[in-house]
Design goal:
The protein folds into 2 domains: 11-147, Response regulator (Rossmann fold), CATH 3.40.50; 158-321, Alpha-Beta Plaits, CATH 3.30.70. It has helices at 11-15, 27-37, 49-59, 75-84, 102-110, 123-147, 158-175, 189-196, 198-213, 240-256, 286-302, and strands spanning 18-23, 41-46, 63-66, 93-97, 115-118, 179-186, 222-227, 230-236, 272-278, 308-312, 317-321. The strands form 2 sheets. Strands 7-8-6-9-10-11 form a 6-stranded mixed β-sheet, sandwiched between helices. A 5-stranded parallel β-sheet has the order 2-1-3-4-5, sandwiched between helices. Residues 1-14 and 323-331 have low confidence and may be disordered. The protein is elongated and about 75 Å long. Helices cover 44% and strands 19% of the residues. The relative contact order is 0.08. The chain is of the alpha/beta class.
């Protein structure tokens, strides 16, 4: 739960604030920490380790202030679970606890915490130490963003794609929601490079990436350069039918760029082939999802390129084509 209040007209400033999660079953401590940080941070709260883990997965705070003694999961166990999960392992944790002995501090740091503050605390000291770790987190996020951004196209790298897909697949399994995946290949790109040169090829990839990016719907959609002239798109909370509809929009959007491609036997302009897959009872592992998307991309190529291919493995319904409504056939 977010305990901060917005000032009128301050939505953008509020959204850009750093996010702090306070985890404590004592409402007086929660209130004190809220007043310490609420002027310049978004402050969330949780009263148990279990709820703290859920908030961290869903809201991705920039810092967690964590009590040790709580019902259910204690602070040490909570911290260990946060650090063991790739989706939350980078969130710094500061223990704020009444335990003042050195053994408790050693155990907290061993669990993965970055700092240890003893109650009763001085708000000025807490703010200063929290600010130091928020600064380190911001710098780390910037370095990670640079490492996870493809220098040519500005979209995510393959490494970023692999991590995001793993996280979103685990999230979809936990929540029972859908997850779709697209594999997108620029048709006859080798011939494009041979005719127009590699500099023009780089320009083509930038234009295609920019067109794909305009079709992303929110912060959790991830567009990545999977390798060479192949892009991939992770679509959380998206059914197969919705992903196919989006893939058709993407295919048409790339055609509408009218990038000349005289060396293509698909069309006189640059086109893409797209394979689409989504989680279902038939998709038991992340490897299943990747294999299905790859197989559908291969099918789109074999069927003539410049089209979308997706198979509903639960019904089974085949969906193909690029300009007409989704065609369906048994088999």
């Amino acid at each position: 739960m977010n305990t901060g209040d917005r000032e009128p007209g301050s939505a953008d400033r509020y959204a850009s604030r750093e996010r702090i999660l306070v985890v404590d079953d004592n409402p007086l401590i929660v209130q004190a920490l809220y007043h310490t940080f609420s002027n310049d941070c978004q402050v969330f709260m949780a009263t148990s380790g279990e709820s703290a883990i859920e908030v961290c997965r869903e809201r991705q705070p920039d810092l967690v202030l964590l009590d040790v003694m709580m019902p259910g999961l204690d602070g040490y166990q909570t911290c260990e679970r946060l650090k063991a999960d790739p989706a939350t392992s980078d969130i710094p944790v500061i223990f704020v606890t009444g335990q003042s002995d050195s053994a408790a501090e050693v155990r907290g740091l061993a669990a993965g915490a970055v700092d240890f503050i003893v109650k009763p605390f001085n708000p000025v000291i807490v703010r200063a130490r929290a600010r130091a770790h928020l600064t380190i987190k911001r710098q780390s996020d910037l370095l990670r963003e640079l490492a996870y951004t493809d220098a040519l196209t500005g979209v995510a790298t393959r490494r970023c794609f692999d991590l995001r897909l793993q996280n979103e697949f685990l999230r979809a399994q936990r929540s029972g929601t859908a997850l779709a995946l697209m594999m997108i290949d620029v048709d006859r790109f080798r011939q494009y490079n041979e005719r127009y040169g590699y500099q023009a090829g780089d320009d083509c990839l930038r234009l295609v990436a920019a067109a794909l990016r305009t079709r992303m719907r929110g912060a959790r959609d991830t567009l990545a350069r999977h390798g060479g002239d192949v892009f991939a798109c992770i679509l959380p909370d998206t059914s197969l039918a919705a992903a196919v509809s989006l893939a058709r929009e993407i295919e048409e959007r790339v055609r509408a760029l009218t990038i000349p491609h005289a060396g293509s036997d698909v069309a006189p302009v640059c086109t893409v082939s797209i394979g689409v897959a989504a989680t279902s009872p038939a998709v038991e592992t992340l490897q299943d999802l990747l294999a299905l998307a790859d197989a559908e991309l291969y099918r789109a190529r074999m069927d003539g390129h410049g089209r979308v291919s997706a198979t509903d493995h639960d019904r089974p319904t085949l969906m193909r084509g690029h300009a007409s409504p989704v065609a369906s056939a048994e088999g």
